[in-house]
Amino acid sequence: IPALEELHSNIIDEDNKIAEVAENCFHVQRGTYFKIGDVTHAACGGAFSIDRKYRQFGLSWWPQEEPNIFELQKFQDALEKNPTVVLTHDVPMRHSIQKGDDPDFVYNTDVRCNLEKALSASKATPLYWFFGHYHILKEEEIKGTTYYCCGLEGQFWDVWYPDIKPEKGGKWCV
């Protein structure tokens, strides 16, 4: 993906591959373990594009949108350190994300299954897990972790970061 290749020239933390993409806007590579202040984090972006049949390969859709096995292993390694906060684009299967009002339909994708496997294998219990792929507001506590689906405007971000606000007109994204 050309835009991601461009990030490598802006890396500010070589160990964790954190790149500044704009002022106060950072890209964190999949599987990264890092700290903001004294708070530990693990991150793993990527998800299955449910609308990819309407997209064009190499122009508006890429296979790299989903984490590969090596990135998932790095994420599991980050989870082994039992971070306080997890930031992902998708969410493990244990979370009950549903399509619309149909309680019998739950999104079941390889990415969700693999995030679940990584979390289960790690035995980690993060306090908070933020994700945003579904663009809805939802909060759910499961096995000691509070999961927040952050909606379109990054809602819930201030639960853990009450003093950090996006720039005027800006939005949070996960």
Query: Can you count the helices?
Result: 4
**What is the global morphology?**
globular
What's the average pLDDT?
A: 79
Helix content: 10-25%
Annotation, overall tally of beta strands: 9
Distance between the termini: 19 Å
Radius of gyration: 16 Å
Find the structural class using helix and strand composition.
Answer: alpha/beta
Give the amount of beta strand, in percent. Answer: 15-25%
Which stretches are poorly predicted, pLDDT < 50 over at least 5 residues? 168-172
Order of helices and strands: HEEEEEHEHEEEH
Strand order of the largest sheet: 4-5-6-7-9-8
Largest sheet: 6 strands, mixed
Looking at the chains present, what oligomeric state does this protein adopt? Answer: single chain
Name the features.
about 170 residues; six-stranded mixed sheet; about 20% helix; globular
Short description, anyone?
This protein has 174 residues and is an alpha/beta fold.
Write a structural description:
By secondary structure, the protein is α/β, with parallel strands linked by helices. The chain is built from four helices and nine strands. The strands form two sheets. It has a six-stranded mixed sheet. A hairpin with a 2-residue loop joins strand 8 and strand 9 (145-150). The longest helix has 13 residues, at 110-122. The radius of gyration is 16 Å and the shape is globular. The chain starts with a helix and ends in a 14-residue tail after the last helix. Mean pLDDT is 79; it is low at 168-172.
Write the layout of secondary structure elements.
Blueprint: H1 2-7, E1 11-13, E2 18-22, E3 25-28, E4 32-36, E5 39-44, H2 69-80, E6 85-88, H3 110-122, E7 128-131, E8 137-142, E9 145-150, H4 157-160
Parallel strand pairs: 5-6, 6-7, 7-9
Antiparallel strand pairs: 1-2, 2-3, 4-5, 8-9
Helix pairs in contact: 2-3
